[in-house]
Amino acid sequence: MLFLCPVLWVHYNNPLPLPQNRPAILGEGQGAKALDWTHPWIIPNRHRSAPAGCGLTVFDFKKAMGYFYQPIVQPSKSGVQFNAYSRNEKGTLLGLFITLEGPEGAGKTTQIHPLADFLRSQGWDVLTLREPGGTPISEQVRAVLMNLANTAMHPRTEILLFLAARAQLVEEVIRPALAGGKIVLCDRYADSTLAYQGYGHGVDLDTLRQLLHFATGGLQPDLTFLLDVDPLIGLRRKQKEGEWNRLDACDAQFHQRVRAGYRQIAAADPQRWVIVDAAQPPDAVQSLLRQHTLARLRAQTAPYSG
User: Fold this and answer.
1) Does the pTM exceed 0.85?
2) Strand pairing class (57-64; 68-74)
């Protein structure tokens, strides 16, 4: 008989409910111990690995940077993959990492601050960030990347600059904020590199993924919103607002490839991504962001027994 366990096995054997009760067999490496949990919704997992062909996801864990855990996800035949909301070795709930992605003019900057204010009104400790930027070093890199005068910038140069700014932001700001239990809302993150430099400029996606893993230390968002809008509509919005940078000035075909890339990325990881029609009125978009964020918080802050 196959037993499933709705807990995440981490280094210190702290249990945590699975988001959305997705089926999984969990363990720390191949030697996870089966414990006799007494919590009524926990059924012990007495299997070290998934039986062949069962279509379930097997999780492994590692301690990352000394203060939180990251899941290493092995894809299952059913394609079920998602990130886990983590606890430290004392059982303290760690922060939630939410990113907003989308083509130019989708409304990410417009939406992020009302969402943060709403979450604060609900009692959450929230930090808002933007990419590139967020630290003194990252802001200096941003100035180079966005400068309209830098038209000669090669895509490889562009990639490395974005990664440098992101690496600094992750280590200086994001990881400490998550370790402190904050909700981190970030206007763009690693998926932007895949969409813009990968799908937009045609740089090899596998190479980009390796570089992104190095720059971020493997840190993935728990939830990502794709604010989806026709690039022509988005670019008109930016022109009307008087905002224009070097990437905005790329041709229309580039921006169409970026949008298509975002859609492919989101389709490949539906547990993390929520696609929102950003052509709707801003209030309607904000309402959807709040609904999905609260749903994720409820799913990932279920009762804990350590």
Assistant:
1) no
2) antiparallel
